[in-house]
Prior knowledge:
Elements (H helix, E strand, L loop, with lengths): L8 E4 L2 H5 L7 E6 L32 H18 E11 L4 H10 L3 E10 L15 E8 L10 H7 L8 E4 L9 E2 L2 E2 L7 H11 L5 E4 L6 H8 L3 E6 L2 H12 L24 H6 L8 E4 L5 E4 L5 E3 L2 E3 L1 H9 L9 E4 L5 E3 L1 H13 L18
Parallel strand pairs: 1-10, 2-3, 2-9, 4-6, 9-10
Antiparallel strand pairs: 3-5, 4-5, 7-8, 11-12, 11-15, 12-13, 13-14, 15-16
Helix pairs in contact: 2-3, 5-6
Amino acid sequence: MAFELPLNTIIKGDCVEILNTLPEKSIDLIFADPPYNLQLQQELWRPNMTKVDAVDDDWDKFVNFNEYDTFTIQWLAACRRVLKDTGTIWVIGSYHNIYRLGAILQNFGFWILNDIVWVKTNPMPNFRGVRFTNAHETLIWAQKKQGAHYTFNHHTMKFLNDDKQMRSDWEISICSNRERVKVNGENIHSTQKPEALLYRIIQSSSNPGDVIIDPFFGTGTTGAVAKKLNRNWIGIERDKKYIRAAQRRINSIKQPVTDVIIFETKPRNQGFKIPFGKLLELGLLRPGDKIQLDKTSDIAIVLADGRVSSGEYKGSIHSVASEIIGTRCNGWVHWLFTNDSDELEVIDSLRKTAEKIITQQLPNGGKNGKGQKDSSVL
């Protein structure tokens, strides 16, 4: 009898040991957020003499680069064994480790497809003033076997970006307080990644029903977003407190609708300043939510790639509204959603909420050097 994957489960233990128990070539997508080996030499203090909550966990400490490289070789070898020939891997790191990770990936025969620069819209300042503010991290996206077919949902990413081809610089804020997993009011994990980052990764390089594994699961961002997008996931984590927090987080997410149409991807030709898909990335709307057209009371279902579906029509909020009404219109001012007070409200208010969230997370409140709003990240 073939061994069945422990889908949608957090497995406690060492990632190398556990990966080596899983069937060979059984995983569609890997997201790996390994220790960065930050090599912190001393405590860091702000100018007001409050201590910075830096990454000083034991799991990020290595004796030297040789020990870190050995660790990297072991977990990447285990990942390569379970990844399908058509599969891809995402690895994230900072300047402390990303170049070592990239070299080892290439030594294993992975073929690098892209390096994505995650530009943090609200980075931590360099308090000592001895270096540039470190405002980005790098993600390497690589396929297991050069020339093999792999998943890249190009049209989905265009649709999420208002019909413009998505670039390799992603402007996303670091994990905010409203998203942070906390215990007794304290952040439980020092390097929790934002769901918006995983939303793009999972949407771009997997399909509904695919199996995604995260060998450094932490507080479960990969599993949380995978569940919302109707993907299967497996998490591997050693720390009991992270596992408990991740399981509570994922359990709190409602089971997504099973209608595959909501998660289909198609191209379109529309675009407005704030992409409708941004509302999904920020969690202001969810795949499967229903919105209502003000003029006709027609109902549309929100799809995971930023389109909506109503009867025979499927496309952007603008094109579907235009088809139903019979004249070209701006969907932002005609579609209504049910707010927290259980009242219908125009979705344009969500666009304004999204803009507010983004600009609040920008340096200087989103103002450029002339005191004007800088809309370059919208």
